[in-house]
Amino acid sequence: MGIRGAACIEVHELVGLRVAPGSSGFGQTQGDEARRNRNAEARTPRDDLNHRPKSCARRSQMSRLRTAAMALVILSCSCTGQATTATSTPSPSPSPSPVVFGTPQYRALWVDAFHDGIKSPAQVEKLVADAHRANLNALMVQVRKAGDAYFNQSDEPRAADIKGPADFDPLAYVIRLAHGANPRIEVHAWLNTFFAGQSSKVYLEHGDSWGNRADDGSAGGYLDPGVPEVQVYTHRVFMNVARNYDVDGLHMDFVRYPGSAWGYSPESLSLFKLETGAQSVPSPSDEAWQAWRTARVTDF
């Protein structure tokens, strides 16, 4: 498009004014011109007289170069502006879609206390090593089997089948090794809740008043959640674990009645009658009775 169109200016070349022969131009006479030249020669050192035409030529050349350079600068700026205008600003890239993670995955192993698993230091070491090799990320270790404890910070008796020195704490050792593994393995404490076993210390001491009964009067080593003292005692068992060990979870097993025909301990029947106004022993199919039993477990 050229300099003129791009810069929106006009560049004119200045040329010398031609004067007709015998004329000095601008209405001046030859005599006036001669006098002016003599005066200029008188003011100019003699050594510079021969250089005046050359200096004028250099100044004229430099002037043309400056004009050309200015034109190039104008052209460069104009072209840059034109390119910026002509090229549309690219739109920003869309934000990447957020990464959606699925439900956290448990690759867990249940370690029951009726078999080997955490009963000795060697068993614990093998358990954690096997879990790591199998790419498991959680261990559910049973630490209360039947009114006993596989952890030292407990009000209940130490489990009789623990193999190791008296200060060996199975739960603490599992936590230490599993949490120290890379990647870390979670440890969840698994406790039988309302099952204690008829030979357990708690059942032998409180079975007559705390023990669960079926509608035919039979017993089975369960504690009755309808008895307030049972709830207080069992809650304390769980809190001993939660407060003293860095477990990642607590699992309540047997947090229920043995069946729909259970819950007929003398104290539960007395409380049911007191709270509902019932006058007789309810049958297992009595809806009010079943709702009352359900509420006892939910309250716990």
Task: Describe the protein in words.
With 300 residues, this protein is α/β, with parallel strands linked by helices. It has a domain of 192 residues: TIM Barrel (Alpha-Beta Barrel), CATH 3.20.20. The chain is built from nine helices and four strands, in the order αααβαβαβααβαα. A four-stranded parallel β-sheet has the order 1-2-3-4. It starts with a helix and ends with a helix. The N terminus is likely disordered.
SSE layout:
Elements: H1 2-7, H2 30-43, H3 52-86, E1 108-111, H4 121-133, E2 138-144, H5 170-180, E3 186-192, H6 201-210, H7 228-244, E4 249-253, H8 266-276, H9 287-299
Parallel strand pairs: 1-2, 2-3, 3-4
**Using DSSP, what is the number of strands?**
4
Structural class: alpha/beta
Envelope shape: elongated
Portion of residues within helices: 40-55%
**Share in β-strands:** 5-15%
- The CATH C-level name of the domain at 108-299 is Alpha Beta
Q: What is the end-to-end distance?
A: 89 Å
Number of helices: 9
Per CATH, the superfamily of the domain at 108-299 is Glycosidases
Largest sheet: number of strands, sense, barrel closure: 4 strands, parallel
> Mean pLDDT across all residues, rounded?
82
Low-pLDDT regions: 1-29, 42-56, 80-86
C-alpha-based Rg, rounded: 52 Å
Summed up:
The protein contains nine helices and four strands.
Name some characteristics of this structure.
single chain, 300 residues, alpha/beta, TIM Barrel, 8% strand
